[in-house]
Amino acid sequence: MVTIHKYPFSVTDDFTKEMPEKAQIFCVQMQQEVPCIWAMVDTSLPFETREFSIKTTMQAIDITERLDYIGTFQTSTGDSVWHLFERK
């Protein structure tokens, strides 16, 4: 069955999430001050580990890393802003 799932995570430099294979990530946003990834997934497929990296504005990025931009998210006050990438 294909459905949309939410994957909460903690703000840390790098993290992994288990998702069904071929999960299509829609966006990253804060929900009640908790960062979450939303993705369309086929729950009949086996799970795979996806790798993510969080960067801050003005943080140096190693251009040899294979990173795909997912989105930018921030606290409700705008005091903290982060940029989420997926490692490929």
Descriptive notes:
The protein is an all-beta fold. The protein has one domain. Helices cover 0% and strands 64% of the residues. It is built from no helices and 7 strands. The strands form 2 sheets. A 4-stranded antiparallel beta sheet has the order 2-5-7-6, with no helix packed on it. Strand 6 and strand 7 form a beta hairpin. The chain is globular and about 40 Å long. The model has no long low-confidence stretch (mean pLDDT 96).
Order of helices and strands: EEEEEEE
**How far apart, in Å, are the first and last alpha carbons?**
26 Å
Shape: globular
Provide the structure class. Answer: mainly beta
**Mean residue pLDDT:** 96
How much is the radius of gyration in Å?
13 Å
- % residues in beta strands: over 45%
Low-confidence stretches: none
Spatial order of strands in the largest sheet: 2-5-7-6
How many domains, as an integer? 1
Q: Mind summarizing the main beta sheet?
A: 4 strands, antiparallel
**How many extended strands?**
7
Helix content: under 10%
The number of helical elements comes to 0
List keywords for this structure.
about 90 residues; 4-stranded antiparallel beta sheet; globular
Explain briefly what this protein structure is.
With 88 residues, this protein is mainly β. Helix content is 0%, strand content 64%.
